[in-house]
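Retro notes, structure queue

What went well: the backlog is down to a handful. What didn't: a couple of records were mislabeled last round, so from now on we paste the full input next to the output in the thread. Example, using TadE-like domain-containing protein from Mesorhizobium sanjuanii:
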Amino acid sequence: MEFAFLSPIFILLLLGMVAYGIYFGASHSIQQIAADAARTAIAGLNETERQTLVASFVANNAGGYPFVDSAKLTYQAKDSTADGNQFVVSIQYDARNLPIWNLLPALPMPGTTISRKSTIRVGGI
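Corresponding output:
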């Protein structure tokens, strides 16, 4: 009985889809954390209060996003230097512990740090 569907190319494609699916899932989660933290920060009256709101949001919620270990996450939250009416939340995630890096050594993989940013207007339109 032959299992032609288990050819090396099929296995490479399957493992590639799994690995990149996990990576894209983690990447999407990091972007969502940045966006949700920025939306939370809008309630702050000044930069310091917005930073406190972002810190609280990340500490209480980041671990609940798929593929995210909150201990591997760092962030910056500050008013934009280009436009004082914008508040920027930047998230960096150390993705080295995702279960994809040793899945298949021949598979080219993206970088081990995922960085995403979200900006929100302060004070309405």
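Agreed that this is the format going forward. Reviewer comment attached to the example: The longest strand covers residues 86-94.
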